Amino acid sequence: MKVVTGVVGNDIHVVANRLIDLSLRARGYEVFNLGVNTYLEEFFDAVVETGADVLLISSLNGEAEGWGREVKPLLTQYKKLDDVVMMIGGNLVVGRGDPDEIQRKYKSYGFDLVCHQIDLNTGLDMLETHLEKRTQESNA
Amino acid sequence: MSLLQEERKIILSNEFVDAFDFAEVTDFVKNASKELFISHHFKKNKNKKMMVQPRGGFPTYEKQYALYEFFLKANVDVLPLTVDSNTRLNDYATAQKMLRLSEENNIDMLNGYPLVTHGYRTTRKMITHFDKPVSLRHGTPDARLLIETAIASGIFEIEGGPITYLLPYSKNFPLDKAFLYWKYVERVCANYSQLNEPINRESFGPLTATMVPPSITIVIQLLEMLLSLEEGVKSFSVSFAQQGSMMQDIVTGAVLKKLARFYAEEIGCGDADIHLVYHQWMGAFPMNRDYADQLINMSTVIASMVGADKIITKTCEEAVGIPTKEANAKTVANTQYTLRILNGLPSVVDEEEEEILTLEVKAIMEAVFNDPADTLWRKVFNCIKSGIIDVPFSPHIINHNEMITLRDAQKNIRIIKRGNVPMPDRCYEYHKSQCDLSKDTTSIVNDIIHDIGIMQ
3-state SS of A10-31? Predict the structure, then answer.
């Protein structure tokens, strides 16, 4: 299973990015880590180039909201990305926010999995459950 | 005219520079007050009182001036001039605009002092007025214009280096360019050093301040020192930040001092003065201000055990944002108080740890010197590219990120995966034997998260 990951926007928070990379590898994923300071186009280009199954975007400095809105319009320019699992995690809003509201908002932006201030391993467990469920559905 | 002088003319003929007068600046440096030179203070400081230097930079002249007044009241030894991030990235147009907005609306639109925008004629008035040594703190890969302006202003200590100001701060600024731009900085500092007391260069040892093992810190300190000395710099400070274990800090300080002297003599630069600088904890700070003050106080004690020549302070507001001048001055006063009452320190030596660390550093240094490239900077460049030097948690694309570190029970940083770093097997086995490696990677990742946040 291939995963493209990185930190979106003018955000240089590298620590979490390295830990995500390490944890994904430990769980057996093939990881393409674009690192910090990555733009949406670069993420989607990398997914096309690597044929990734999962796109995991992280954000810490509050920029996710602005970039999130751009996801759908930009996705229309790419073909064959419908099956990619889209996941986002980190600090997804500036300041405090209602978790349910944040979930709803980011799902409307096109993300399948939204992890706002959720522990890394819990988030990656969610990804695994999601992938298993999808495999079962397609087999059924 | 020399090639360097031609380059200087190009760098200083810039729409953001108001007619740089080479002859006048040379004359100013030649006749400048000795008090402005930290190298002079290092020399005359015979009783070895550790110098205290805070951090701090505000956008407007008035606020920077007010900050310095506060620092003086708190009995500061060295004043900081921290530069804003637009200037650091050579975006002088934005710095100019934000400075005007800050001045007009009386709010801070910049996270430091835009030195190039203020210019040397204005800044020099402030520096010479206070007549204290000033240290330039920035983070700039291309600092050519910045350091020309700094020295012309009377700022005679320049922090940074091609590796330490790049690998922690940038994702893709080309490292080879950084080496060449810093070569210019070293040469300019070396030339000015012949006129009066030497300009002091200081490397930035904290790097990413995240689980960097002492051997990597020391190797990079030594290499930046050598790159500086070989261009003719005569006064240099190596530095490192509090690591989390008192013993490891003491060992790091001892090995760094010993090897800095050793390698300076190896390249025939034994006449240079070398100093040791200690940074109070640079990692994640506690939100609780009282705890933050306790941590700062403990850092001062360790700096004394290490025998540092200068300490660079933090504030109790570190976890919250850019500190106020009040909080900043409070730390200076507190640190001076701790230093005054801290007497009769025991001398602590851990021979086994020192031996292991010395072996590691020497092995990596040997690998750098054995690189087939013709000049030292190219050897260093190749070694970073090939992962012989690997900095944990660097965001830069050239960094290998293969090394993994963990804390042992005493909170010493240990290397549990060396990647391409040529540390001897004996040292590697020693490091691993200090840690519990029977855990799975998920638990180890959780340990790393815990180890990063130990002071919170």
Answer: CCCCHHHHHHHHHHHHHCCCEE
Q: For each of chain B's 456 residues, which pLDDT tens digit applies?
A: 899 999 999 999 989 998 999 999 999 999 999 999 999 999 998 668 999 999 999 999 999 999 999 999 999 999 999 999 999 999 999 999 999 999 999 888 999 999 999 999 999 999 999 999 999 999 999 999 999 999 999 999 999 999 999 999 999 999 999 999 999 999 999 999 999 999 999 999 999 999 999 999 999 999 999 999 999 999 999 999 999 999 999 999 999 999 999 999 999 999 999 999 999 999 999 999 999 999 999 999 999 999 999 999 999 998 887 789 999 999 999 999 999 999 999 999 999 999 999 999 999 999 999 999 999 999 999 999 999 999 999 999 999 999 999 999 999 999 999 999 999 999 999 999 999 999 888 888 889 999 999 998
Per residue, the 3-state secondary structure of A46-98, as one string, reads: HHHHHCCCEEEEEECCCCHHHHHCCHHHHHCCCCCCCCCEEEEEECCCCCCCC
A94 shares contact with chain B (CB less than 8 Å): no
Phi, psi values for residue A83, rounded to 5°: -85, -5
The answer to whether residues B76 and B132 touch, using CB atoms and an 8 Å cutoff, is yes
B445 touches chain A (CB under 8 A): yes
In 3D space, the residue among B385, B360, B349 whose CA is nearest the CA of residue B215 turns out to be: B360
3-state secondary structure of B238: strand
- In a domain, residue B283? The reply is yes
The verdict on whether A21 is a catalytic residue reads no
Tell me if A121 and B401 make a contact (CB, 8 A cut-off). no
Residue A18: list chain B partners with CB under 8 A: 392-393, 401
- A19 Cβ under 8 Å from any chain B Cβ: yes
The DSSP code sequence of B92-143 is HHHHHHHHHHHHHHTS--SSS--HHHHHHHHHHHHHHHHTS-EEEE---SS-
H/E run at residue B53: strand B51-53
Domain count, chain B: 1
Residue B442 touches chain A, beta carbons under 8 Å: yes
In a domain, B232, yes or no: yes
Q: Nearest CA to CA, how far is A21 from chain B (Å)?
A: 10
Question: Given CB atoms, is A121 within the 8 Å cutoff of chain B?
Answer: yes
Residue of B nearest to A20 (CA): B445
Domain residues for B32?
3-341
Task: Tell me if A22 and B449 make a contact (CB, 8 A cut-off).
Answer: no
Whole-model pTM: value is 0.95
- Give the chain B residue whose CA is nearest to the CA of A24: B442
**Residue B136 burial (CB count, 10 A):** 26
- What CATH number is attached to the domain comprising B268? 3.20.20.240
Please, what are the domains in chain A? 2-139 (3.40.50.280)
CB B394 within 8 A of CB B438: no
Residue B263 lies in a domain: yes
Residue type, A117: Q
Task: Name the residue among A12, A17, A23 with its Cβ closest to that of B445.
Answer: A23
Note whether residue B417 is domain-resident: no
